[in-house]
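name: query_chain
kind: protein
chains: 1
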Amino acid sequence: MSSHTAETQLSFLGKLILEADLTCETGLHIGAGKGTLEIGGADNPVIKDSFGRPYLPGSSLRGAMRHALERALDLVKNDEIVYLSRRRGQEVRIHQSNRPNDEVCLLFGRSSEGGTTAIARLAVSDAKLDADSITPAMREYLDDEMTEVKSETAIDRLTAQSSSRTLERVPAGARFRVRLVLDILCPEDRELLAPVVQALRLIEDSGLGGGRSRGSGVVRFSKLSGQWRSKAYYASGAAAAEVLTAADLSAVDAAQVAEQLV
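structure:
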C-alpha cells in the first residue's frame, strides 16, 4: 500500500504522460452492444467510431486495469464492495474503501457514497487503431475491411444439439497507441506508478475484452514512453522531461521513474 495518510495535503505537482503500443496477439473483441440485428452481420460486433473504424475505449482499458488490481491486491471483500450500477440484469459492483492509502481508490477515484470523495489520479484516453497495422496480406483473410468474424459453437449438454454464434474481432497483429495520464497531486502520488505498471502486466497475462476464456484478447504492450510535465510546464512553458523509454513492460522500473517526477 502507499504511504498516503489522512493528513496528506494535495497540491498539483504535474502530470506523467505514458504512451505505449498495444498489439493484439490474438483477435480482440471489445463489444459495442446492439439494438438491432443486421442480416449477415455478426451477433457480437466490436465498437467502432463514427468513421466505422474499430477503437479501444479508454473506459475498457481503465476498467480492466482496475479489475486486475482489485484481484491482485486481494481487495474484493464483502465489506468493501459497493454498487456502481443497480440496473436489473446489469448490476455492477466494485471495490471501494475509506482507507487513505488504498491505491485502487487513489488511482481510480472514490465516490462520496458511504464515505469521503477521492480525486481519481489516472485518466485513460480512447486508443485509435493504427490502420497501417492491418496489412494488405491480412486484409485478404478478413471478413470486413479491418475486422474478422470468429464462429463459435455451443453444445447442449443433454441433447448434444449445437448452437452457433459469431464474434467480431480486431485481428491478431492489429496495433493501438494507448495514452495514460497520471496526475501527481502530492509527493506520495509518485508511488502510484508502480500499481499502474502492475495492472498493465496483469492484463498481458489475463487478456482484454470479451471471449478471453475462448482464446480472444491476448495483448502485449511495447514501445513505452513517459514524459513528465511539471507544474512549471503548464504555468510558464518549462521543458518537459523524458523519464521513460522501454521496449516492453519487463524493462520498466517504476521506482526509478518515480524518482524523476520532481
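note: Residues 14-72+118-258 form one domain.
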